[in-house]
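From the pipeline queue, job 12 of 40. The input is one protein chain; the requested action is below.

Action: predict structure.
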Amino acid sequence: MPQCEPNCPIWHVDPKVKTVTLTPRLLQLSMPKLNHADHQRNRDSVTSIISCVYKTARVSPRLIQLSLPKLKESNVCYEFGCAEEPIRTVSRAARRATASARIKILAQPKQLTEGYIPPREPEWTRQNLTPD
């Protein structure tokens, strides 16, 4: 079978496929599915009658207002003020708060495990740089 590049427009069919004998089952599967005997097409009822009132209707300002999305004020971004002022206001209770002993323990970074060997820095010498 001839081969060409992947985006070739020619469909190469395997010779084995060309010599296949058609069985009654293959012929049955190749037939299109027929409509049910009781099926009726109602093409005439597709069109609908629209009255003149609906054809001349105008959109009210209230309907336009209801169609617009509600815009909420974002509390993610804050206005920048003087450099001395905090970006966000901090409550008095938060300024007076002190961390408990448990919080202080949890805030400590994890210690290295026993037997940990840190990765060594590579050594660059003239012997390593020159090929033998």
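Job complete. The helical segments are 15-18, 24-30, 52-55, 61-67, 92-96, 101-107, 126-129.
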